[in-house]
Each structure stands twice: as structure tokens, then as C-alpha cells.
């Protein structure tokens, strides 16, 4: 299924037409359904015929041929299109399949995914094979094509090459280029990025911005360069500014930016009362954020804020499909669309009691169906980490004059190191911890100190990072070493050690970045990690995002990267990495 270029083969389409003629029975009838018709923008009542994964008819007629048909009486439900999450980072400890399976249970049946980790962790041939394999999932998945690594890599021009970006943009599953975390380079004259934008536009694909705090002047410039949408509005006024410049605005509510209540309140104050140019996103939040659902929790916030229910549902379905030019497949309940439908108890409760995705039951009357399709990640080059090198005593030399201070979960600034740090165990009253970023192949390292992570952490190791390299943090060099060794034994993961004992660990056997566990299990593991870190002084809410963004150069002000300590605002390397 779906290994061909077209969504349905000619033979399948002929069968769909034969269902209308009564020569073939539908596989399912949703009878007496009151459903949201997105073109008419109102609730209508009728019958929905499904053949395998496609809606072949929606209207007042019932089929004559019901020989092999499941008939579902929908009199007690409202039906809405499956929700579409337009901005997914499907590598936040979870993997694309585990997140998709979890999201579908609460009605989010189509995902538009970031391809960054596929670029960094495997080759193009295997990455495209993963995309093809995931098409067999009950959840519909589309992708972006990144134009930069979101960090500073050694030899980045060979990692994200012109040939690679062009191949990704040409792929059928790619709906957009971006997100444009490297937009300052574009403003500074990077014509290669501009060329990629031009190519994406030539292919009728969108460009996703990443413009936090951008002025009206910058927003106008980026629109001229080709940006179509931005998800970084943090106030109602910023929503207004983006709408004024012609952007589609993605309203975000995420684990590090839970902005939606503020946005909705301030939009109302500004009398912004049209929603066709908006949709909703959770922006790749960490696992525990999704305990309350995925897009269903955002739709609920929108309805409770006073947004008309139909507009709220459109912001999670029809608006997204129309924007990405996939409304012939997704985002509405109508003839010809993929049969992804949510069954609701009431208009005000967007969490479905039953979910169809590609014509398959994900959940029926609250009972979840397990599907057999599982990706064999090692087959595509996403193996356990194999590190055949050891840390040496000389690797634990920390003589850097400048450290990194956290001001929240993800923003960091430089500070002058004034304490004596020549100890093997830093004094407990120091706010500082040792910090090392080390190449997963053991070729280089960068050592400094970090303030504000968790003052009483003794040894902490993580293979989860923006670049896939290894982070070590702690007061005690011996506990840091033990955490590193245990992380190696796991084949990748996050490990906390104290006084020679392992306190907590999260195995990440999929390339050292992703878990193979279900989202439900991973949520418990992440919550436990957050608790033990907070018990040891972590002051914020999202340590997983902290780990991710320590190397991410699209946020201010200073980062540890594969080229060294990097000054984001001035685009310079403070101190280069040390070759081992």
C-alpha cells in the first residue's frame, strides 16, 4: 500500500467508483451522521460511505449493496475531520511512530514532521526508506525539508548539502521548506538558502519561518524572501503583526512556550475575530506535555476562550489542509478524502470517543486498537550507539574562563568563572556544574561550566542533544564518568548518577536520541527524570528541552556546539573545540 507515486492506483479508483454504482459494497457506512462540512462551514446530517481508506461518498443516500459492510450508527455523535498537527518534531525522546500512535488516540491523525534528525542520523537512501515505511502506518505523515542544522556543525555544507536539500524538496512527502532557524544568514546575504526557498516555491511548497521577536520590518523582509507562515508569535500584537504582513499564523502551545491562553485573550482584546489564516500547534513538545492530549487540548482552549466551535475545529484540520494544498485528501469530511474521522460526544468536547484513521479503527467507544505495523529502526541505520572509545583523565580538564548560565529552560548567557574549579568534586555551595559536549565518535570535546542547571547533580550523561553528540554535566568527575559509561552500555540514553549509584536512566536505543517504548511508558520515565532533577536543584519545567537546546544556535545567547562555544548574536566562536 502507498509505495506508488499516486495516493490511489487507477484500479483502486475504479473500485471506488464501482461502490457508487452499487457493484461493490462499501467496507463501512457511518449512518445518520451529523458531521462538520467544512466547505459549507456548518453541521449537516447524512451518511458517509467508506471503502478501505477513502470516503467514497458523503450525502443523503444509502448504498444498496451492503454485503461486506460494517454499519455504524452515528446518531449519538458529532463527526469532525481528523486533526492535523502542522509542526511536529518527532524525535523528542519519542520516535515518529510512537508519537503518531499516541497522537491518533486523541484524534490527531495527520502529522507534518521535521526531518532534521533523519538528516543528521542516517543517509538519504535510508531516510527515504523510513518515509516509505511510515506510509504503512494508520497515521498520515508528511515532512519538511530543513535548510540548516540548528547548530554549528563541522563541515555543515557537506552534511546539509545542496544536492541533499534539493532531493528532499523534490520528494512527494515534503510539503514545505524550513523551519527557517537560519534566517539571520538569509538577511546577511546567503543566496544558497534563498535559492532553496525559490526552489520550494517553484514546486508549490510552503516556507515555514522561525521569527521570535521579529520586528515588522523583519517580518516584511522575510515575506519578500518567501516565508509563508510563522509559529513564533508570543503575544496578540505579534499575531496581528503577522496577519498584517500576510502570514499564516500558527498559534503555539508547547512545553516551553505554553502561550495559547495569552494569545487567545490578547487576540480578543485586539478584536481579531477571523481565524481562516490560523492553525494550532504543540511545536514538538516533550512527552509529559501530552498527558492531556495533543491538538484536542488546544481546540478545547480555543472553544473555551469564545472562538466559535467550527472555527476551532478548522484551526486543527481544514485550515491546515487548505494551506498545504492537501485539502483534496485531508481536513474535511467529503467525497474523495482519506477516511480519518473523529467521533465526538459534544461540540464542546474535542477529545473523541472513537477515531478512524485511513479507514481503520484507532479507538472505538473508548477501546484502543493495537496495530501490527512496527518500524525496525536498525534496518534503516538508526541503531544503538556503538562507541569504541573511552574518556581519559585529561578529558576532565576545565579551565575555561567563560561559562554558560541558564536564565530559563532554554535561554543561556555567558558568565565569568571566578570560582576555583580545579577540584575533582566541586563544592556543594557552588552554583556551577562541570559541562562537557563530546563528539559521539570521540574526535573532539568542549569543556566549560554551567550555572542554573541543577546545583546538586553529581553525574549526568545524555546522548540526547541537538546534534546527537554527548552531554556530560555534574559536580563530580567520577560520577560523570560513571554516567557516561552506563549511557554507553545502554546504547544511548540519559543517566543520572550520585555517589557511584545510578539514580535514574532513560534508554534511548534508537540512535541515542529516541526511545523504543510507548509514549505512555516514556511519559512516566520523563516525569521521574524531571522529579529527580528538581530534587537536585533544577529550577525550570522542561529539562529535556534544556538538553536539546544547549547546542541550538537559533536561540540566544551562548551555546556549546561541535565547533566550540558559540556566541549566537555575534556569530563567532568564543573558544574552539579541542581535538582528542
Automatic annotation (TrEMBL):
Q: Which keywords annotate this record?
A: Hydrolase
Its UniProt entry gives the catalysed reaction(s) as: adenine + H2O + H(+) = hypoxanthine + NH4(+)
Supply the InterPro entries for this chain: Adenine_deam_C, Amidohydro-rel, Metal-dep_hydrolase_composite, Metal_Hydrolase
Identify the Pfam families for this entry.
Answer: Adenine_deam_C, Amidohydro_1
First-level EC class = hydrolase
This entry's Enzyme Commission designation comes to 3.5.4.2
According to the entry, every stretch annotated as the Amidohydrolase-related domain falls at: 79-361
The protein's GO terms of the molecular function aspect are:
adenine deaminase activity
* Chain ranges of the Adenine deaminase C-terminal domain: 411-571
As for family, the record states: Belongs to the metallo-dependent hydrolases superfamily. Adenine deaminase family.
Its name, as the record gives it, is adenine deaminase
Amino acid at each position: 500500500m502507498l509505495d506508488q507515486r499516486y495516493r490511489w492506483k487507477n484500479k483502486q479508483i475504479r473500485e471506488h467508483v464501482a461502490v457508487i454504482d452499487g457493484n461493490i459494497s462499501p467496507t463501512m457506512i457511518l449512518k445518520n451522521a451529523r458531521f462538520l462540512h467544512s466547505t459549507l462551514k456548518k453541521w449537516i446530517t447524512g451518511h458517509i460511505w467508506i471503502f478501505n481508506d477513502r470516503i467514497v461518498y458523503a450525502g443523503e443516500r444509502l448504498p444498496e449493496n451492503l454485503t461486506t459492510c460494517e454499519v455504524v450508527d452515528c446518531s449519538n455523535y458529532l463527526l469532525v475531520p481528523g486533526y492535523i498537527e502542522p509542526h511536529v518534531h518527532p524525535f523528542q525522546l519519542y520516535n515518529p511512530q510512537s508519537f503518531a500512535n499516541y497522537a491518533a488516540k486523541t484524534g490527531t491523525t495527520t502529522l507534518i514532521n521535521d526531518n532534521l534528525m533523519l538528516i543528521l542520523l542516517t543517509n538519504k537512501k535510508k531516510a527515504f526508506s523510513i518515509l516509505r515505511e511510515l506510509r504503512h502506518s494508520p497515521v498520515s505523515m508528511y515532512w519538511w525539508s530543513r535548510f540548516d542544522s540548528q547548530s554549528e556543525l563541522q563541515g555543515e555544507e557537506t552534511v546539509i548539502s545542496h544536492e541533499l536539500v534539493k532531493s528532499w524538496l523534490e520528494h512527494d512527502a515534503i510539503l514545505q521548506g524550513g523551519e527557517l532557524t537560519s534566517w539571520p544568514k538569509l538577511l546577511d546575504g546567503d543566496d544558497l538558502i534563498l535559492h532553496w526557498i525559490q526552489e520550494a516555491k517553484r514546486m508549490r511548497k510552503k516556507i515555514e519561518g522561525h521569527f521570535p521577536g521579529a520586528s515588522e520590518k523583519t517580518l516584511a523582509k522575510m515575506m519578500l524572501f518567501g516565508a509563508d507562515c510563522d509559529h513564533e508569535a508570543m503575544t496578540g500584537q505579534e499575531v496581528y503583526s503577522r496577519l498584517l504582513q500576510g502570514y499564516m499564523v500558527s498559534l503555539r502551545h508547547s512545553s516551553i512556550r505554553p502561550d495559547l491562553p495569552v494569545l487567545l485573550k490578547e487576540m480578543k482584546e485586539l478584536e481579531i475575530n477571523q481565524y481562516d489564516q490560523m492553525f494550532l500547534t504543540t511545536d514538538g513538545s516533550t512527552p509529559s506535555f501530552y498527558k492531556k492530549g495533543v491538538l484536542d487540548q488546544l481546540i478545547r482552549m480555543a472553544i473555551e476562550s469564545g472562538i466559535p466551535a467550527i472555527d476551532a475545529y478548522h484551526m486543527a484540520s481544514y485550515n491546515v489542509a487548505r494551506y498545504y494544498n492537501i485539502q483534496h485528501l485531508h481536513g474535511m469530511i467529503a467525497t474523495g478524502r482519506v477516511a480519518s474521522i473523529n467521533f465526538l460526544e459534544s461540540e464542546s468536547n474535542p477529545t473523541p470517543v472513537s477515531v478512524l484513521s485511513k479507514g481503520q479503527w484507532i479507538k472505538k467507544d473508548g477501546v484502543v486498537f493495537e496495530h501490527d505495523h512496527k518500524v525496525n529502526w536498525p534496518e534503516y541505520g538508526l541503531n544503538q550507539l556503538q562507541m569504541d572509545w573511552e574518556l581519559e583523565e585529561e578529558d576532565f580538564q576545565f579551565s575555561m574562563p567563560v561559562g554558560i548560565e541558564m536564565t530559563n529552560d532554554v535561554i543561556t548567557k555567558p558568565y565569568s568563572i571566578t570560582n576555583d574549579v580545579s577540584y575533582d568534586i566541586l563544592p556543594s555551595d557552588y552554583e556551577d556544574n562541570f559541562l562537557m559536549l563530546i563528539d559521539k565518535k570521540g574526535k573532539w570535546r568542549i569543556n566549560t561550566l554551567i550555572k542554573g542547571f541543577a546545583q546538586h547533580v553529581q553525574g549526568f550523561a545524555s546522548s540526547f542533544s541537538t546534534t546527537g553528540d554527548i552531554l556530560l554535566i555534574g559536580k563530580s568527575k567520577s560520577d560523570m564518568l560513571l554516567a557516561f559509561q552506563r549511557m554507553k552500555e545502554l546504547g544511548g540514553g540519559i543517566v543520572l548518577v550520585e555517589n557511584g549509584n545510578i539514580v535514574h536512566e532513560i534508554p534511548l536505543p534508537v540512535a541515542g536520541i529516541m526511545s523504543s517504548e510507548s509514549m505512555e511508558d516514556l511519559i512516566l520515565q520523563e516525569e521521574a527524570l524531571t522529579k529527580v532533577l528538581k530534587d537536585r536543584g533544577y529550577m525550570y519545567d522542561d529539562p529535556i528541552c534544556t538538553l536539546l537546546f544547549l547546542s541550538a544556535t537559533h536561540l540566544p545567547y551562548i551555546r556549546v556546539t561541535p565547533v566550540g562555544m558559540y556566541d549566537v548574536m555575534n556569530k563567532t566562536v568564543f573558544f574552539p573545540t579541542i581535538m582528542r
